[in-house]
């Protein structure tokens, strides 16, 4: 089964850029430590301050589902609720 790729884009609402950045930085180390995590990299958009992109690779869908239930991910969701807009793409590589 191919790994599951996730591209998560989070855009802070005006005035909440620092809170979003700090919350995202906190979730990286414990996410990388998860058994099913193959990649978890946080990036910032050079052309749009306040927009962050997380590039993730998971062993499989079950590993991602586990991640979405972890205390560090749930704390991220709670912290940024109402402070940012988020989009998530789930991808499998074709070639």
TrEMBL record:
Q: What is the residue range of the signal peptide feature? A: none
Per its UniProt record, what Pfam families does this chain match? Answer: ABM
Give yes or no: UniProt keyword Oxidoreductase: yes
InterPro entries referenced in this protein's UniProt entry, alphabetically = ABM_dom, AI-2_Isomerase_LsrG, Dimeric_a/b-barrel
UniProt keywords, alphabetically: Monooxygenase, Oxidoreductase
Q: Does the keyword Mitochondrion apply?
A: no
- The UniProt record lists the ABM domain at 4-94
Q: Which Gene3D superfamilies match?
A: 3.30.70.100
Which GO molecular function, any one, fits this protein according to its record? monooxygenase activity
Name it.
Antibiotic biosynthesis monooxygenase
